[in-house]
Amino acid sequence: MASWILVPCLVKLRSEFNAIAPERDKSSDGSVGDAAHQDSQSDHNPDETGNVPIRDADKVNEVHALDVDVDLRVPGLNMENVVQFLLARCRSGAENRLRYIIYNRRIWSASSEWRQQTYTGRNAHDHHAHFSASYASGREADTRSWELEDIPMPLTDADLTKLRTVIKEEVDKRIDALERSLPVVPSQDEIAEATLRKFRSSPTTGMSDTGANLIVSQATAAMKAGKAIKPYPVNEGKSLGELE
Ligand SMILES: [Ca+2]
Ligand SMILES: [Ca+2]
Ligand SMILES: [Zn+2]
User: Fold this and answer.
1) Minimum-distance ligand to the CA of 4?
2) pLDDT averaged over consecutive 10-residue blocks of the chain (244 residues)?
3) Percent of residues in the chain assigned helix, strand, coil, to nearest 5
4) How many whole angstroms from 141 Cα to the centroid of ligand 1?
5) How far is the CA of 51 from the centre of ligand 2 (A)?
6) What pTM value is reported for the model?
7) How far is the centre of ligand 3, averaged over its atoms, from the C-alpha of 130 (Å)?
8) SS3 state at 222
9) Where would I find the beta strands (DSSP E) of the chain?
10) Which of 20, 54, 102, 162 has its CA at a distance of 20 to 30 angstroms from the CA of residue 111?
């Protein structure tokens, strides 16, 4: 067979399958047509030398179809997920590099607005999914991402463990910050001590230290000035500590 290449956009698609499913079974993979394909018209045949439905603008001998084994060996991910994901992108207009997809007795094609139709071909395509690419030069060569990494997948146990760790770290951080921002609440002992300190340093409270000092200093000043200190009758004969 003459030398050929798989169109770059499908090389990219295959490499993204390998990226999201590194352990996938490749035994039903395929690109270039085998003897059976060569006899009939197929996108698997090299387009300059083989039997293909479309003659393209260049002279590059290209294969425009990729078969991908359905066994992706990723828990929670199957070929149906990938096919439906790509179909949604084709229908939304986000993707324009495919002509049709065949998978599990169904075919969806650009020419039918990606509506699902029953596929009645001899091969049910239940061991591989078939992706046919556009023959337009710009689309064949377009190797931007197929975004397969964005396919929604259930969380694995490892994902959950990682999530728990991240959430716990974040919650701890928030609690620390909250604690730092809260006013300090004094303890019972600190309140009692502060009350006593206030009591003892007040000039007017009962027998506070300050009150007693004030009386002593006033008495001393009076004695120095030679003024007589006349006690209230009720305090007659009492010491300073016993004053009322
Ligand atoms: Ca070509
Ligand atoms: Ca081409
Ligand atoms: Zn195929």
Assistant:
1) 1
2) 92 98 96 79 94 95 97 94 98 98 98 97 95 98 97 85 95 93 88 89 80 84 83 72 63
3) 40, 15, 45
4) 11
5) 15
6) 0.67
7) 4
8) helix
9) 5-6, 62-63, 65-69, 98-103, 106-109, 116-118, 128-133
10) 20
